[in-house]
Amino acid sequence: MKNIIVTFILTFLLIGCKNEKVVLEEETLVNYYQIDSTIIQDGGIKMIPITTKDTVFHVWTKRIGNNPKIKVLLLNGGPGCTHEYFECFENFLPAEEIEFIYYDQLGCGNSDNPKDTTFWDLPRYVEEVEQVRKSLHLNKDNFYVLGHSWGGILAMEYALKYQQEMKGLIISNMMSSCPEYGKYADEVLALQMKPEALYEIQKIEAEKDFSNPKYMELLLPNFYEQHILRLPAKDWPEPVNRSFAKMNQSLYVTMQGPSEFGISGKLEYWDRTQELKNITIPTLVIGAQFDTMDPKFMQKMANLLPNGEYLYCENGSHMAFYDDQQNYFKGLIAFLRK
Q1: Could you give the number of structural domains in the chain?
Q2: Residue 7 has pLDDT above 60, yes or no
Q3: Residue 5 placed within a domain
Q4: Please, what sign has the CA dihedral across residues 161, 162, 163, 164?
Q5: Are 192 and 221 in contact (CB under 8 A)?
Q6: Distance CA 95, CA 106 (A)
Q7: Could you tell me which of 240, 239, 196, 235 has the C-alpha nearest to residue 218?
Q8: β-strand 283-288 against 308-313: which pairing, if any?
Q9: Which residues pair with 148 in a beta bridge?
Q10: Which of 30, 53, 195, 223 is found 20 to 30 A from 15 (Cα to Cα)?
Q11: How far does CA 243 lie from the centroid of its chain?
């Protein structure tokens, strides 16, 4: 009888503690969703002051959704694109109660543009992301970084320095080695082109005649529609066209180089493959069959990461969140939910 009474008391206490925990969590959520009526609401936009080289600039961010436990900061590609091509995320993540944050890097979109190439520098961008994190009060209990393309380079570099501040990492459509990326472009992607188109493209690049309108006329059907976004360019989603139209060419050329086919510029020799073993937080690597990046190499990256997973988009290209949406978002959401 005594044991029955003790068991009853312990059960009662456990239920009480559990109910108290639920109440506290509900109160936390209520506070999080609470709208501060003392200030004007602006749709979750925050202009964040960034101090770099003793100068203060402002970068643009916008929060979509509310979830104190899952906050995904999106790092766009290019370099030099804007957050806008990520707008398809709005059709998938809010329904799963996943909060994400748009962010235009310095020199991009709605953020300040110093128009000075000395600011286009990978270590400087890493410190910029850290200042954004602090300003948005993101921490190891809720903070995920999703970097796409160039944003994937920035995300890896950030994680290698600041993973103690993160809950998880998503490397979307980016290899950990620019030399290997260049090799894949030359030895695999180039050989898939029509020989006559490749000859003309290489001729224009050898002459450094990148402003020649024929260059893009050749690249669109032979490269972009095959490996960037697998739709006829006339049918590309409006957010993609809007983002690409705002490309900061100075930033792009400084970091990527003038060629659309391969890589040069400051990032030409960037390679962090040997350091992937040092990223110990849960990490999802996303690759696609028709990507500009080698999907097998990205699978290898996932294996090198101590807590790595690989998501393969069999119908996708570099922008698999458009041309293989169901696979992309199903895998991303499952990772974030775990």
Answers
A1: 1
A2: no
A3: no
A4: positive
A5: no
A6: 30
A7: 196
A8: parallel
A9: 172
A10: 30
A11: 15
pLDDT tens, residue by residue, 160-187:
999 999 999 999 999 999 999 999 999 9
> Which of 83, 148, 227, 318 is flagged as catalytic?
318
The answer to whether the CB of 286 falls within 8 A of the CB of 332 is yes
251, two tokens: 């930033």
3-state class of 81 per DSSP? Answer: coil
Q: What is the chain's Cα-based Rg?
A: 23
What lies within 8 Å, CB to CB, of 285 at 6+ separation is 171, 298, 299, 301, 302, 305, 308, 309, 310, 311
37 catalytic? Reply is: no
Among 112, 291, 294, 323, the one annotated catalytic: 291
The verdict on residue 17 lying in a domain is no
State yes or no: pLDDT of 12 exceeds 60. Answer: no
* pTM score: 0.89
CATH of the domain at 223: 3.40.50.1820
Can you give the residue range of the structural domain that contains 108? 43-338
Q: What is the mean pLDDT of residues 9-19?
A: 44
Q: Which of 285, 47, 61, 252 is nearest to 159 (CA)?
A: 285
Rounded Cα gap, residues 125 and 32, in angstroms: 29
Q: How many CB atoms lie within 10 A of CB 156?
A: 26
Q: Does 13 reside within a domain?
A: no
Count CB atoms within 10 A of the CB of residue 113.
Answer: 15
Which of the following is catalytic: 111, 149, 176, 317? Answer: 149
User: Has 149 been annotated as catalytic?
Assistant: yes
Task: Provide the H-helix boundaries in 277-324.
Answer: 295-304, 320-323
Does residue 65 belong to any structural domain of this protein? yes
Q: Is 318 a catalytic residue?
A: yes
